[in-house]
Amino acid sequence: MTILKTQSNSYVISILSVVTISLLGLLVRDVIDYKIFGYLLLFLVSILAIFLDIKPVLLSAVLSALALDFLFIKPYYTLHIDNAQDALLLLLFFIITLINAVLTFKIKRMQKAIHIKEARANTMKLYNTLLDSLSHELRTPIAAIIGSIDTLQQNNVTLSAEIKTNLFNEIANASMKLNYQVENLLNMSRLESGYIQPKIDWCDVKELIYNVCNRLTDELKQHKLEIETEDNLPLFKLDYGLMEQILYNLIYNATQYTPKGAKIRIEAKYEVDADYEVHIDLIKKCVITISDDGYGFPKDEINKAFDKFYRLQNSKTGGTGLGLSIVKGFVEAQHGTIKLTNSDDGGAVFEMTFAVDCLATNTVQNE
What we know:
Oligomer: single chain
Order of helices and strands: HHHHHHEHHEEHEEHEEH
């Protein structure tokens, strides 16, 4: 039913377009040469060929020829033509109109086919890239889990308590890595489908940072962690779950792409807009910065850092290349911005800014 209705609408549009141009032409028929109306009708058919299917376009071509003969070539209001010149002109107009309609439609169809082919090629490229990444990223933790379980299940081998603890820790760490990869895939799927609907509520950014760092205790063991937040940092209206994933991905990346002993610094503060004195509405900016003193990003790769599946060319660390693209998507879903730069010392600096409502913590305590 929907397809039939769409086709019917196309025919109506085709007919009304020719009728409208013809009626407008009648108003100035006595002062403008009829050949000009022929050009206008030819142009109309070309425009319709871009947007409509071939059958409505052919109908408009036939109607245009009939309208030109009936309304604009003397004698008026008859299909009779007095001289051979006008008859030849009308015949050529009809042929050119039909050819133009068909060619325009074919060009449109070819362009559509090219777009479909390019989309399929890009999809296959992303699919192959994802498979290549996951074949390593998922296989490694799975192999660790299977190997540890096999060792624990061997009845003919006596394992000490320390070895068993290490094996259980190996299983736990591998499981966390698997969960991280699966979460990234699910989050990317949500971003691609436009399913992200932030659940905005009052969020304690300071508490959030410490919770994420506690989840990454093992990864942060080999690094120097610095957390700096203002004493009276207010609550901000953000999505706690999205912010947790944002911070997790950024801090996790910092642990993976910096050498052992590198410093990872997390800073949270709020800034007041310049016109705050005029518009006292408690709208401020929450600024969260995550930086390190590692190797930073090559200048020619900084602009590609947030692209899907993109990994640093000279990086020895694996990964699917989804972490930073998810971070960018989650930040923008909350109407925030994220900027990546290199510090003067060479490390990476991620700065996120959210223009959101805030609430002083002492107000909450008093209440």
